[in-house]
């Protein structure tokens, strides 16, 4: 156990060091806007790994976007990603749907928050629009507990439908984005691959056994936005009733965007949209 912990400590520390050195050499400066609102969300992100923006969208805007998502699934089947049991359906590249989706993609506020949290310029790779249904045996959006990355990953999430405990609210494990906690959790789980990004329900139960309060469930009404560091362990919880609609922006360091779109296939392209006009 001790040898494994020391090995994991070295592996995780080395990964963090390389990431920070690359960031130091390649990050780009940007014009940071200083407002009380941005400061509040930065403080929340640094303290908790997430921050909530209430009433980001109106009920009417959410309803309109839900209709557009359902329509996109019908019109662009070749651009629809489908998960296990066909419960989780996604449109990567949803910004090309235009309207509110494109406004969300270009939103400067969340770009400012993310870039200031990173302390360097971020770029928004894409917008995801998704729906997950209460299919028997579904394991939730994201298909289980995971990290999006081991060192840094920032997303903005907007619930387009009410996210109640029964229909798949976003969940995360408190402090699991912090290096000190990552090392502790690696020890508790005796991980063979400390840089692995997928976790079983059994492993999460082990983490929660001594501290159940680490489980954070973000139930919220439609129109709520969550700004979140998804290097934390997280998931969309399994949907038990109805369905849940949401959209996400995927932010990466500006120097680390090249080649990433190819990892999100199938995806909607401008050519598909033009061909359907």
TrEMBL record:
<protein>
    <recommendedName>
        <fullName>Phytanoyl-CoA dioxygenase (PhyH)</fullName>
    </recommendedName>
</protein>
<dbReference type="Pfam" id="PF05721">
    <property type="entry name" value="PhyH"/>
</dbReference>
<dbReference type="GO" id="GO:0005506">
    <property type="term" value="F:iron ion binding"/>
</dbReference>
<dbReference type="GO" id="GO:0016706">
    <property type="term" value="F:2-oxoglutarate-dependent dioxygenase activity"/>
</dbReference>
<dbReference type="InterPro" id="IPR008775">
    <property type="entry name" value="Phytyl_CoA_dOase-like"/>
</dbReference>
């Amino acid at each position: 156990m001790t040898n494994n912990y020391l090995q994991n400590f070295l592996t995780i520390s080395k990964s963090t060091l390389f990431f920070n050195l690359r960031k130091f050499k390649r990050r780009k400066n940007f014009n940071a806007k200083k407002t009380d609102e941005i400061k509040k969300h930065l403080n929340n992100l640094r303290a908790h790994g997430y921050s909530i923006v209430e009433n980001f969208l109106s009920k009417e805007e959410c309803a309109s976007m839900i209709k557009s998502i359902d329509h996109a699934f019908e019109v662009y089947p070749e651009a629809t990603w489908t998960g296990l049991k066909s419960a989780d359906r996604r449109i990567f590249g949803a910004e090309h749907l235009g309207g509110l989706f494109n406004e969300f993609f270009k939103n400067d506020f969340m770009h400012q928050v993310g870039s200031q949290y990173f302390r360097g310029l971020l770029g928004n790779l894409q917008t995801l629009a998704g729906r997950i249904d209460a299919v028997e045996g579904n394991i939730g959006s994201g298909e289980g507990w995971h990290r999006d990355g081991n060192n840094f990953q920032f997303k903005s999430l907007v619930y387009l439908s009410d996210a109640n405990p029964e229909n798949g609210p976003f969940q995360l494990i408190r402090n699991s984005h912090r290096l000190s906690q990552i090392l502790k959790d690696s020890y508790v789980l005796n991980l063979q691959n400390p840089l692995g990004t997928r976790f079983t329900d059994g492993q999460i139960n082990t983490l929660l056994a001594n501290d159940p309060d680490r489980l954070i469930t973000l139930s919220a009404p439609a129109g709520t936005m969550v700004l979140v560091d998804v290097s934390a362990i997280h998931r969309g919880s399994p949907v038990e009733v109805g369905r849940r609609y949401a959209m996400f922006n995927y932010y990466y360091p500006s120097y680390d965007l090249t080649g990433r779109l190819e990892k999100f296939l199938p995806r909607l392209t401008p050519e598909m949209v033009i061909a359907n006009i």
